[in-house]
Amino acid sequence: MGASQSHGLSEKVSQDILEYIARNGLQPGDRLPNEYELAGMLQVGRSSVREAVKLLVSRNVLVVRQGAGTFVSQKRGITEDPLGLSLIPDKHRLARDLMEVRILLEPQIAAAAAQNAAAGEVEQLEQLCAQTEQTIRAGEPHLQKDIEFHTCIARSSKNLVVPQLLPILQKAIEVFIDVTNSSLLEETIATHREITEAIRRRDAAAAHDAMYLHLIYNRRQILTR
Amino acid sequence: MGASQSHGLSEKVSQDILEYIARNGLQPGDRLPNEYELAGMLQVGRSSVREAVKLLVSRNVLVVRQGAGTFVSQKRGITEDPLGLSLIPDKHRLARDLMEVRILLEPQIAAAAAQNAAAGEVEQLEQLCAQTEQTIRAGEPHLQKDIEFHTCIARSSKNLVVPQLLPILQKAIEVFIDVTNSSLLEETIATHREITEAIRRRDAAAAHDAMYLHLIYNRRQILTR
């Protein structure tokens, strides 16, 4: 079998494995059947299964733990720099354009979150507000908490795509936000609370507006650097 | 050296190679210096360069042609299913939510294209309109031309992020558009022309509205299936 045919087969088998995961609702951390069982189920050879698993590991869908088996990855299939943003040379323009995309998406998403958030999600947002404030007051980097906050809002909106997309946009933007700027830090603490409060009250317009103000305040920090 | 240390080093070297590509403005199809030269420039061993190149090949940044060398990939670092959408089991909800993201982004992007498109880009849009119509009249699948049309508008907007993102959203949505529906096909031909015409006239509001109508017409097709 030629290299490209073999590549085509492992791509096909990897699709079958993805369908198996989706159909059976496997979650990050769940274990897959072993190579022997998968080969039987998908009616292909074990070497094809091995190739397909390798492909899915490289795409951060699966993770192999020696001796323990093959598991659905916590990274949910999101690869390192999936949009190829590291290839863009003008990092300042990139940061500005990433903010533009966030400004187009997130206010609407915050409004949807006000309509669709579960009670547990509102509670989680309140905890993330408190944790972000603690992290900032301790003088520690708060980017991770910031990403969790915005991603939790995206999840609460119940849109399936935006929670996958936001962490990518936020990570690529981060280098341009001056994290030592204290007015930005105070703004973050206050506005995260304001957004959370609007979502808790189910006030879609207020959630939209608070998110919008938060993002354009952040954009101004980038543009004036 | 342990496996994780070695992984860390090839990750670091791959970052250096990315910086080299960005700094020198290498474009898809351009050749990289050979392994020996890269090792010298980056002051690491050739085996580290080899590992880093492998990593960047798996991320669709580079492509190795046996005997010819290592080149910047035409795929521009965009990996297969980079948002992990194939892991989402409810494909109907997924298609709806992808359309929602497109509706939030693309009308504004079409307005920006009306302001920023170069003359050559307007010409390219006109060609893509003609090619899409030919493809449809020939009864052939026009998804590829459709993606090229929307991506060309995104490029014309001069936003750096949206052209990387749109093909991913469009490919994932495609399976839900009933391509045999003739009213949808006629709508595509007419509205693509209308959007192009508005961009040619530099009429941002008309480009915005035509794109908006195009996308909500498409969304209705998905929702009623």
> What proportion strand of chain A?
under 5%
Compute the number of helices of chain A.
9
Assembly type of the chains comes to homodimer
Q: How helical, in percent, are the residues of chain A? A: 55-70%
Q: Greatest chain-chain interface?
A: A-B, 44 and 44 residues
Shape category of chain A: elongated
Descriptors:
two-stranded antiparallel sheet, elongated, disordered N terminus, 2 strands, homodimer, 68% helix, mainly alpha, 225 residues
Description:
2 copies of one chain form a homodimer. Chain A is mainly alpha-helical and 225 residues long. In chain A, 68% of the residues lie in helices and 4% in strands. Chain A has 9 helices and 2 strands. Chain A has helices spanning 3-23, 35-42, 46-58, 91-116, 119-137, 143-156, 162-173, 182-200, 204-223; strands at 62-65, 69-72. Chain A has a two-stranded antiparallel sheet with strand order 1-2. In chain A, a hairpin with a 3-residue loop joins strand 1 and strand 2 (69-72). The longest helix of chain A has 26 residues, at 91-116. The termini of chain A are far apart. Residues 1-5 of chain A have low confidence and may be disordered. Chains A and B meet through helix 1, helix 4 and helix 7 of A and helix 1, helix 4 and helix 7 of B.
